[in-house]
Design goal:
Layout: E1 26-28, E2 32-33, H1 36-46, H2 56-61, H3 71-76, H4 85-89, E3 93-103, E4 112-124, E5 128-138, E6 144-155, H5 158-177
Antiparallel strand pairs: 1-4, 2-4, 3-6, 4-5, 5-6
């Protein structure tokens, strides 16, 4: 055991806060090849037992070469924790507040998926801000199979809020010293 080790320091770099993000910034998520085992595992977790997800003959009768991935299974590849975004925002994350998606093309066993997260909009609030993240998933044929949007409520940097509070306090003191009244 090393006396120099502190488990509280064993983490990614310091968290980035709302105002540290930039529209257009992209966050990496590794590509993944989905397998029949992934399909079976997701079917178990989701309890979705529609034959389009596991019955090869049912799928072929409907013009598909095999079972289709569950839409939410494809969506899971865009989870913030699947890539670097969750580590980048770290402790600034307050909540995952909204998600929408469109499933554009089927995903089959053996397809390789390439998810991507891009900051699409930043909406400041008083002590927090909402980061709108555009999500996409392409397959190995460069086809867009999913598009959507996720919104995260993030803290603003404490140091910046503290600076603003200090400036406001100084202004109050200045007005009070001059005999003026300041109403806030």
């Amino acid at each position: 055991m090393s006396e120099d080790f502190d488990r509280r320091q064993h983490r990614f770099s310091e968290s980035r806060y709302f105002e540290d993000l930039a529209v257009g910034e992209r966050f990496y998520i590794p590509s993944r090849t989905v397998t029949e085992a992934n399909f079976a595992a997701f079917q178990t977790v989701s309890a979705d037992n529609h034959p389009i997800h596991y019955d090869v003959e049912y799928c072929r009768e409907r013009g598909h070469p095999g079972p289709l991935a569950h839409g939410f299974q494809v969506l899971c590849f865009t989870a913030a924790g699947a890539g670097t975004f969750a580590h980048v925002i770290g402790e600034s994350l307050v909540a995952f507040i909204e998600q929408s998606s469109k499933f554009l093309k089927p995903v089959y066993p053996g397809d390789t998926l390439y998810p991507s997260l891009v900051v699409a909009a930043l909406t400041p609030q008083r002590t927090t801000g909402v980061a709108t993240i555009a999500v996409t998933v392409h397959n190995q044929k460069n086809e867009l199979v999913l598009t959507g949007e996720q919104k995260y409520l993030l803290k603003k940097a404490r140091s910046r809020i503290t600076v603003q509070a200090t400036a406001l306090s100084s202004a109050r003191n200045l007005f009070t010293a001059s005999g003026s009244r300041l109403y806030t």
